[in-house]
Fold this sequence. Notes:
A hairpin with a 4-residue loop joins β1 (137-138) and β2. The strands form 2 sheets. The chain has a two-stranded antiparallel ribbon with strand order 1-2. A two-stranded antiparallel ribbon has the order 3-4. The chain folds into 3 domains: 11-71, no CATH class; 111-180, no CATH class; 189-293, no CATH class. The two termini are 39 Å apart. The chain has 12 helices and 4 strands. α7 packs across α11 (270-284). The chain is mostly helical and 310 residues long. The radius of gyration is 20 Å and the shape is globular. It has helices at residues 11-20, 49-55, 63-70, 73-77, 87-91, 111-121, 188-199, 210-223, 228-239, 247-258, 270-284, 295-298; strands at residues 137-138, 143-144, 146-149, 178-180. The structure holds zinc ion (2 copies).
Amino acid sequence: MFPTFPHGATIPSILIAYAQAGCVPSVRQKLSGLHGKTPRGAMDYRGDPDVLEKYVFGGVPAAQDLRLHHTFAPIHLSCAVGASITGASLRSLPATRPEPYLPAFTLRMCTQCVEEDTAKFGCGHWRREHQLRFVRICTTHMKALHDRCAGPGCGAEFSIKNNILPGQACTSCGSTKSASTPIKPISEGYRAYCKLFTDALVRRIPELDLNNRHDLLRGSMLTHGGRANPLNKQFMSWLGHQFSYSHSLCHFAEHYVCNPDPVSASRFSAPALLLIAAFKRAVCGPPPESEMYRWSDVISPHPDPSDILC
Ligand SMILES: [Zn+2]
Ligand SMILES: [Zn+2]
């Protein structure tokens, strides 16, 4: 029987769960039947939902659902140019090789989410919302994310190479204990930033739309007089203790605010622009609810191949 899994489980997590349930022999077993391609293991296609839909999952979940619910791709929809978002525009976005500043360096998990997933789905899952580099907390449970084994003398960092799910025994020492990088009391600003970041996985963040980006950057600049230092100080006090590991991000954000070119800001965009958007919301309030619709409400589950990318 095929295992069920939550929205937000990463594609590698789903593949590992399938392999452990015996639905695929191994995540490394070479897939057969791919015309014109050198066969590789299922895990090697984690960035190619179309191949996984056809050659691993047999149609369910569909590639589009994998992109929408199990990758970082929706974050980039908020940065899409133009008003019309289609299934094809989601399909064109990178599934597992997004901009370099998005993913964390190691796998992370929330112990409480793992408990809840285990009760509901039979095992814990690596969740995409826990793998964002600048988001070090679970925004559901407001706890620091764990990123390493806490077995005696071990400390091995979680890695996808080990092919285990969160909560399962460490492949180095056999322990199921885990630990986080120490985190100081979580500031209200950091909590708001993390919440907006994880929201961007499931819903539109209108401030990031290219049509609104000039207002976002210019609005922040006006608020802070267009000078880098005062803005830096604002971020510092807003993020509190968490400023210490967000300062590179604040530096990027400052750069955009002082050089408000919406197009150049689209090259390295999401983490810094989300920081500015979260800060702006703290100062000016959120945009209308109607503009923050969920992607699953507007994305076609079965994109027409003739759709044109907006
Ligand atoms: Zn959690
Ligand atoms: Zn260990």
